[in-house]
Amino acid sequence: MRELVYYIAVSLDGFIAGPHGEFDAFPVEGDHMETLVREYPDTLPTDIAGLQGIDQSSGRFSTVVMGWNTYVIGPENGMPSSYRHLEQIVFSRRHHADEENLRTTAEDPVDVVSELRAREGGDIWLCGGADLATQLRGQIDRLVLKHNPVVLGGGIPLFHAGHYAPAEFDLVRSRDYASGVVISEYER
């Protein structure tokens, strides 16, 4: 069965972005980048991977799911379909995008992920954001957290507060880098 993997950068204080969605405090250079490019080439935007000659065909994901605020980062930076090498599903009740290999939907994310799991293919990447991650929390099979050596002090959390229901995950791998980044992988 396909796994839903929440693969995301996070600050030491648990934020995936600043108060206005900014994520420029997270390092994009350093020794951790070799691991990310080797193990998760499919999580790089299609255009960036193409410019750098990175083969994305060996990645683990065939689908990416994200909320509108995560999606819109691409178009705001000149990439209307950031992950067109993957099946892209963007959840929004108010907005619509008509781009290559992208579907915008107002459907229940749990229902959509359940349908995706039943199909053949690679794993499903939960790209962000916190609202969607909170809705899908009970569906997440694996967390891959790129802990960055920065404290944001506020912003968009990894998950929004909500109904208290602990979900246990086991640490299966953790790697630390000279850059200060620690990549931790947990499975349910």
What does this molecule look like?
Residues 4-182 form the Bacterial bifunctional deaminase-reductase C-terminal domain. One of its GO terms (biological process) is riboflavin biosynthetic process. It holds the Pfam family RibD_C. InterPro entries: DHFR-like_dom_sf, RibDG_C, Riboflavin_Biosynth_HTPR. GO terms for molecular function: 5-amino-6-(5-phosphoribosylamino)uracil reductase activity. This protein is α/β, with parallel strands linked by helices and 188 residues long. The chain has a single domain (4-180), classed as Dihydrofolate Reductase, subunit A (3-Layer(aba) Sandwich). The protein contains six helices and ten strands, in the order ββααβααββαβαββββ. The strands form two sheets. An eight-stranded mixed sheet has the order 5-4-3-6-1-7-10-9. A two-stranded antiparallel sheet has the order 2-8. It starts with a strand and ends with a strand. 31% of the residues are buried.
Q: Give the distance, in angstroms, between the N- and C-terminal Cα atoms.
A: 14 Å
**How many separate structural domains?**
1
Structural class: alpha/beta
What is the 3D shape?
Answer: globular
- pLDDT averaged residue by residue: 92
What integer value in Å does the Rg equal?
16 Å
CATH level 3 topology? Dihydrofolate Reductase, subunit A
CATH architecture: 3-Layer(aba) Sandwich
The first-level CATH class name: Alpha Beta
User: What order do the SSEs take from the amino end to the carboxyl end, as H and E?
Assistant: EEHHEHHEEHEHEEEE
